[in-house]
Prior knowledge:
83% of the residues lie in helices and 0% in strands. The chain is mainly α. It has one domain.
Amino acid sequence: MSVKTRMTDLLFGVQIICTFWAGISQFWKMLTTTQGVSISWLVFWEAFLIINVVLAVKAHQNKPSRVTLQIVMSYVAWTIMITADLAILILKSVDGWDQKDTTTFILAGAGIIGTLLIGHWRYNLGLADPMVRGYLAVFFKAIPQLVLAYKISMEGGDGIAFGGVFAGHITILTRLGQLWFSIREAGWDRNRIGSAISEIANEASWVIVTIIWLL
């Protein structure tokens, strides 16, 4: 087994461990309190994961490899965890869908629709295009997380689990590390640019959530 394969397997293992750590700790926390947790945040996250599971499965079917299988497994693991978290949030949430969720829906929804329309009508690009997916991630993940930060600042964030916050950073930074190694090896292309847009926006917005949560 090559060094590259061992490193890829190690990073995949870290991803899986942190995925279940984040998901289970958030689930456990929300059994007690959901303060500061936004339904729309998890809804958009879930939708983004489902899209990526479908695309990852198609990519693996077209050109099977160890890496593509790991990508599929990573997205499936996250989908299972977020589905469970969303279910318990809906059951335990006192406020349900509120004005901040509506704000998230309007802002993120407008961005998603705009990205898809511009990508299709101006550039003839679909969901499978990495640049489209990169910009979609900004609206599926970054915008809901920024509104989540605002909600925490207004209402408190006792419902946000430490494991969810910390493991979230580890998984994002791990993916950025994988991307960095990939860029060093093969340079920039549309896939890597799209991934960079997605993960940098994800991490930047999650840093803001973390700072607000800690205050």
